[in-house]
Write a structure and sequence with these properties.
Elements (H helix, E strand, L loop, with lengths): L4 E2 L10 H12 L10 H21 L5 E5 L2 H21 L7 E5 L5 H13 L6 E5 L9 H7 L3 E5 L13 H10 L5 E3 L13 H4 L3 E5 L10 E5 L25 H16 L6 H18 L4 E2 L10 E5 L5 H10 L2 E2 L15 H5 L4 H5 L2 E4 L6 H18 L28 E2 L4 H7 L4 E4 L3 H6 L3 E2 L2 E2 L1 E2 L6 H9 L5 E4 L4 H12 L5 E4 L2 H5 L1
Parallel strand pairs: 1-11, 3-4, 3-5, 5-6, 13-19, 14-17, 14-18, 18-19
Antiparallel strand pairs: 2-8, 7-8, 9-10, 10-12, 15-16
Helix pairs in contact: 1-8, 2-8, 3-4, 9-13
The structure holds pyridoxal-5'-phosphate.
The site of pyridoxal-5'-phosphate has 13 residues, from helix 3.
Length: 519
Amino acid sequence: MHPEIYLDANATSPVLPAAAAAAMAAMQDGFGNPSSSHATGLRARAQRERVRAAARRVLGAGQGRVMFNSGATEGIQTAVLSMLCAVRERRAAGQPCGDLLLVGATEHKAVPESLAHWNRLLGAGLGLELRTLPVDADGRHRLDVLRALAPRAAFVCTMAANNESGVVSDLAGIGQVLRDTASPALWMVDCVQALGKLGLDLAASGIDYAPFSGHKLHAPKGIGMLYVREGAPYTPLMCGGGQEAGQRSGTENMAGIAALGMVLEALERGDTFRSHADLHTCRARLAAALQSAFPGIVFNAPFEHTLPTTLNFSVPGASSADMLELFDAAGMRVSAGSACSAAKAAPSFVLDAMGLPAWRSASAVRLSFGPLFDDAALAQACQRIARCGAALAGSPPQATAPATPATPATSAPAIDAAGLELAAAAVQAWLAAHPDALLVDVREAREYGVGTATLHQRATVNVPLARLGEHTGGWIGDGARPLLFVCRSGGRSARAAQALRALGHPRAWSLAGGFALAG
Ligand code: PLP
């Protein structure tokens, strides 16, 4: 059985083995600095240019610039800076340049945050106004609003595909509106979620700036690309040694470039990744499994307008947090929305912008897979989804906590006698030293029901945090027996251990990091 099914590819994706090997080779053998003029450097330079040529072909870059950088966030800053400098120059020259910074309502936060930041720093006197371009109920940009505002727009940002909903923008329609209205706007399209999933022909599209991140398509984190249309204004963000023809200084991330090259070559060859038709089949199977597991499910974006690799759904009566915990317990990694906002647990602003009812954005679950997703993982995912559905419906036998037997105090010293938290690295030794310990899993019964009921082969009992009170008396009466509380990530178990200590049980611990770090 697959220990973990990774269904969060829009957050990041596993590195293609050939890409990891290429990165390793670039570090071990081809470690030259591409700016050096000796043979080692020349070989690195040749490799960098081979990758750039592949990128040009895959992106349809024509005569535009393609430069390597650290990822989309950097590419977005560079585009914003270039635009602001161009507006300043055009204003000074009395040329039309617009006064609105139009940002699609569902853009990744990197876009509006960068615009607000750089406009605050450099926009004094330019009078530029950040304005949201709304989306319709399907998550697509309102072309009527764009048509009305385009003559005043200095910058238009319309991502190619949304990271939360998977909604694919009508770039042809947007380009047409910008041309029809003779808009002075520079146009940025965040293509992070499009690479390898949508056909790209950037030079023909009229797009001025297109940022990419390698890690969204099986390359490592920290390598990205920025496409700039031939003739579009450009101002470097990073200055220094003049690398990338002075467009982006700093010694190149050759390991990342080599790895990205492998991914681009695989895309070109078409023999490594699933075809688009295959991806549609995967989505259909996952959607069918979800529908049968969760009968009230609603999908939050229409399939005909979404990437086949993203499913965003809500289940009535189950919050995003409930669903994430359930899926995590079943060994499936999904998310509620973008990884950047995962810690905030706020309702999805993307779904809010589409005008979906509040319960749907507060219950949203995003399931996303990459073109390397294999059949075995797909089959496992469908089975586990069925188990999650049964658990949510309350059908699996709920584990109950047995009466706590009285056991003699162990003479083995506690590894972390003073502290409350037991580090994951220490847990096996602790378990060996405490053969009599009671392992209490404080997750919800449904999480316990779909996952494993053991910790390092030792049986656990399930006492959900809310039902702790029913057992504390017995455990305290039996105060010598060590208690180790566990949960998904260590939050609930820490509260349980704290409660027991506060109630007078001296030997209660929590496993720091929970099952997530326990290995
Ligand atoms: N744009 C989109 C659509 C994204 O999904 C992300 C990452 O989640 C970014 C931009 C930022 O990418 P990075 O964090 O790799 O710079």
